[in-house]
Design brief:
LRR_FXL15/At3g58940/PEG3-like; FBD; F-box domain-containing protein; 3-stranded parallel beta sheet; FBL13/AtMIF1-like
């Protein structure tokens, strides 16, 4: 700092400034080379090729010219990451094929492509070094993409794909050709076939499935003995059959609607009832002629339950009664002025439930009756946390409500109350 002529950036070790530049989209990494003479040609050494950073107002031709130049003048023999994601753009088929072919030749490890009218070269589907692959059509593009058969991706561990139409033209070919797959994220859009979706993947540990506008004649069969985490989202149109999910620890169920098929909801929840951590979105409304679906009895293994998207009090009670071994409850409640207490205190509140986290989106006064019941009957409660987001004068509202909360009787002497992570005390917050 004492000298005005020392180029301190150039004095950094090569591995440090290469790492710094590799964290940037390549467009900005190239621009950053003007900061130091020694960096002038460093972009040719970068192994992370992230081509994000071109604004939509720019000409697509400028993007293609830039990518062509980068792929032509590279002097390294390795590409770790090749990323090209533009939800509103397409590129020439020949250009994309050339770029991916070159990335494969340079032993690419991670490939992330999102473009309109996605067409992929054959070399991608037999890449021996690929460990992570993400493929998606651009936004509003329903043309879909296909892959040849057979597929051979011997090192692929992470697969994240969005497909339009028949997943047997692409998704299941990729899955069957990836013997080391550990993480799968699959979103299926606009498919009305009658096939069964059978996932027989012994190596899989994490799975995320989302279905939108698919037929209600499909069946999803999970034979994934090493699966630890499962997410199911979108619209519930399919019957889930859990052939083997013996290692499942955590599950998230966020389905928008069922349209008269409460049995699908019941089957799915029963199938994941043995997990330790369960997160459920809003209980889907079936139709005005059918009652809302219930919560089937869970096993005592369910220790943590997260209820998202504004649950009503009676629904929360039903869940508590269904989870006798529950220890931790996280809930987002809808604003209700009337709280109807159950006739019998749920078993988990007498023996296991130790923490409650309540997310309040509006007036917390609406939830005082609910909190009064939970505090007055939770025999082993240790902590109740209230996360309150209010558009009102939040400090004043917290002070008023905290005084009321402190007056509520507590069945557990060890129970502490926190509002926005601050513990309430008899003298105030």
């Amino acid at each position: 700092m004492s000298s005005k002529h020392v180029d301190r950036l150039s004095m950094l070790p090569e591995e440090i400034w290469l790492h710094i530049l590799s964290l940037l989209p390549l467009k900005f990494a190239v621009q950053a080379t003007i900061l130091s003479k020694q960096w002038r040609h460093t972009w040719t050494l970068l192994t992370n090729l992230n081509f994000d950073g071109f604004h939509p107002i720019h000409d697509k031709q400028r993007l293609e010219t830039f990518v062509d130049g980068v792929m032509k003048y590279r002097i390294t023999s390795q590409v770790n990451i090749f990323r090209l994601c533009y939800v509103y753009w397409s590129v020439r088929k020949s250009a994309l094929s050339n770029w991916i072919n070159e990335a494969v030749r340079l032993n690419v490890r991670e490939l992330d492509i999102e473009l309109i009218r996605l067409e992929l070269p054959l070399s991608l589907f037999t890449c021996k070094t690929l460990t992570k692959l993400r493929l998606s059509n651009g936004r509003y593009d329903k043309s879909g993409w296909e892959c040849p058969c057979p597929v051979n991706l011997p090192c692929l561990k992470i697969l994240d794909i969005t497909v339009y139409g028949d997943p047997f033209l692409n998704a299941f070919k990729l899955i069957s050709g990836s013997p080391m797959l550990e993480s799968l994220s699959l979103q299926i859009l606009l498919h009305s076939g009658e096939e069964e979706y059978i996932f027989n993947i012994p190596t899989l540990k994490r799975m995320k499935l989302s279905f939108h506008n698919c037929s209600d004649t499909n069946k999803v069969v999970l034979n994934v003995p090493n699966l630890e985490s499962l997410y199911v989202g979108g619209k519930m149109f399919s019957l889930f059959v859990m052939e083997d999910v013996s290692s499942l620890v955590a599950a998230t169920i966020k389905c928008h609607s069922i349209y008269g098929r409460g049995d699908l909801w019941d089957a799915l929840l029963k199938g994941v009832g043995g997990v330790k951590s369960l997160s459920i979105g809003k209980v889907p409304y079936i139709s005005y002629i059918s009652p809302p679906p219930g919560i089937p009895n869970m096993s005592r293994k369910v220790k943590q339950l997260v209820l998202e998207d504004s649950w009503k009090s009676k629904e929360i009670v039903q869940v508590l009664e269904s989870c006798p071994g529950l220890e931790h409850l996280h809930v987002q409640k809808s604003a209700e002025f009337d709280w109807i207490a159950p006739k019998l205190v749920p078993a988990c509140m007498l023996t296991n439930l130790t923490t409650i986290k309540l997310k309040v989106l509006g007036d917390m006064k609406c939830d005082v009756k609910f909190l009064e019941y939970m505090l007055g009957n939770g025999q082993v409660l240790k902590r109740v946390t209230i996360i309150w987001k209010s558009i009102c004068n939040i400090r004043q509202e917290i002070m008023l409500c905290s005084q009321q909360l402190l007056k509520l009787p507590r069945a557990s002497r060890d129970c502490e109350i926190y509002v926005n992570e601050t513990m309430l005390r008899s003298t105030g917050i």
